[in-house]
Amino acid sequence: MNNVNINIIENFPTLPTVYTAILSKIQDPKTTAKDISDLLISDQATTIKLLSLVNSSIFSFRKKITTISEAVTFLGFNEVRDTILTLAVMNMMKLFRYNKNFNVIELWKHSIAVGIISKIIAKKLNLENNEELFISGILHDIGKLALYNSYKNTYVDLIKNSSENNLSLLIEEKKMFSLNHSEIGSLLAKKWNLSKVITDTIEYHHSKNIEQYENSPAIACIYLANQIANLIWNFNTASDIFEKPSNSIWEILGINKGFFNKIKDEILITYEDSLNILKIN
Amino acid sequence: MITVNLESLKLGMVLAKPIKNRFGQIMLGENVKIEEKHLNMFKMWGLDEFVVFDEKDSKLISEDKDEIRELANNQVLNDIFNWGVLNELENEYIEFIIDLKASFIKKEKKNE
After folding, report:
1. Testing the interface with B: which of A260, A264, A269 to mutate, by most B Cβ within 10 A?
2. I need a surface site. Which of A3, A25, A92, A218 has the fewest CB within 10 A?
3. Does ipTM top 0.85?
């Protein structure tokens, strides 16, 4: 990693202390559910948001969860951690909301869309690591935010230029910054000590020949969710966006005829619900 | 529904079946209302058989649904212009996207 890239990572906002505290607690085998709840209760803003998120259609628990300790029991340590991370990412995006030239609202909506679509696909297909795919979707384009944070209008112009002239965003990024947004995002995820599933999905979400990777079902899931979100909402029109998924994507995921009809309604309901709960304005 | 040739296809008629090219690829989905630009396209593609709704079916189609679905349909087709032949699963994938896109456009209109 050269100096320029180190700077992109170092300049990026850090994760909140509540997240890092939870992370170290979880790594300690002696930690109990009560330890985690006590830690969360000390951060009231997070507590309130966590509860509304847990009671939303994203999680679709049958029972209403009213206390933090219930939430910790129902979700488990790892999902509590990832949910806190989701909220932290929303707060980071919030920091950029007054930057006129960079449409952070668009990126925010897109990240949520990919998060919920991949969660729904993964759950329906019963993929391994399916509980990590919501946060993977939320984070998949975090490299774009990091590039904007360091390069501001240079990056805005690059996005505009590649979409207007039908150029590949990834290639243009690589020419200008020597790494593309997927690579930057995965460096950031590694710095944050996120799991290999998450770093891999971020790094390879635009890759060809996904079958070669260790976490290929998770990567294929984020890839597909990203494609679906782009086609539905036209988030980005740079030329590498609208691809026909190759047969290997269907094979890796085990998607057969009839699958898409089963997830349509859930996407429709969950997306709007998520935007309301994860608001950044 | 009735089958018509290009000559008898009139503006405002609504497709009852999607139009496919010779590779079986869907060029225009069902429920699309025929406009001038479509007639030119069909001429260019050399198509001469269209299944459209006739008056008996017309009560089945709500005006609002048509317009929005057509919009969604055209946008998606524009985006996937060079995808080539679609198999059954891919067709279902595209239909799913058009459906969701139309539903979200409708929701947005309601919220306005």
Report:
1. A260
2. A3
3. yes
